[in-house]
Amino acid sequence: MFDKLFIGVGNVALMIYSLIINFRLPKFKSEDSKVNTDILKNKSEESFLDRLRAKFMEKFLSKQIIAIWILIASILLVLVGIEVSGIFLVSVGMIYVFMIKYPQIKQQRSYNDLSFELPYALRHMGVELKSGKGLHDTLITVSNADYGSFSNELTRALEEVRYGKSTENALLEMSNRVNSEGLSRCVQQIVGTLRVGGNLANNLEIIADDISFDMHIKLKDYSQRLNAFILIYTFIAILAPVILLIMLMAASTVMGDIVSSEVIMLMYGGLFPMIVVFMGVFIKKLEPKI
């Protein structure tokens, strides 16, 4: 319960970010436009934030924009103080780093569900193959099922096969696109079976069991890390702000105002929430992936 609570606190920023990325206006489509829908999904990857990032990266390092940043920082330095000016410059730097890393973040988030859906999808494929279906029909069935990004990647691979690419090359390219050890093992097994033959259904079930076991071990290790991380999180996110405020109040009664009220507002309104969000993102990074 506590693990989910602490992860949820840090995921607020990621949830807002995901809502912005995935927001789409509803589209009216007919029942016979499934192929067109798949094409639209691929085209919709270039979202508003992608175009905004391209324009931002194009203009950010121009002399005019740099002069504007310096001018704003100078005005803040004169009117408010060095603290606000420094926070502004740091914020601009963080935005720039985020824009650079955004494609990697987007790619990683698009395959977040693959680790959990892959074992079930492989077992589904094994059942379909044992029932007498061919490999191509099995791939179509799994791609139509709700296995998240795995079904989407299979749909893309099947579209490539439909337009002339071999099944082996389409699956191997899918494996190269997705950074997943479990998916690579699955694709290598399918390609090997296509080349030399074999009992693919049993092999896929064995791979699914191995992935589930590895995931169980990684989740157990992840829970142990969280138990140790909770102490650090509790101190930084709960105890440190309270202790610091008490110390400042006690010192101000004896020595007067040590820290200005503006700095205190920035610390409790910006610094500590940013630390909490950063720790939440760090916890998210620790989640096991197959």
Automatic annotation (TrEMBL):
The chain crosses the membrane at residues 6-25, 60-80, 228-251, 263-283. Keywords: Cell membrane, Cell projection, Cilium, Flagellum, Membrane, Transmembrane, Transmembrane helix. It comes from the Archaea. The keyword ATP-binding does not apply. Pfam families: T2SSF. It is found in: Cell membrane. InterPro entries: T2SS_GspF_dom (IPR018076). It is a multi-pass membrane protein. One of its GO terms (cellular component) is plasma membrane. Residues 121-247 form the Type II secretion system protein GspF domain. Its main location: membrane. PANTHER family: INTEGRAL MEMBRANE PROTEIN-RELATED (PTHR35007), PILUS ASSEMBLE PROTEIN (PTHR35007:SF2). This is Flagellar protein FlaJ.
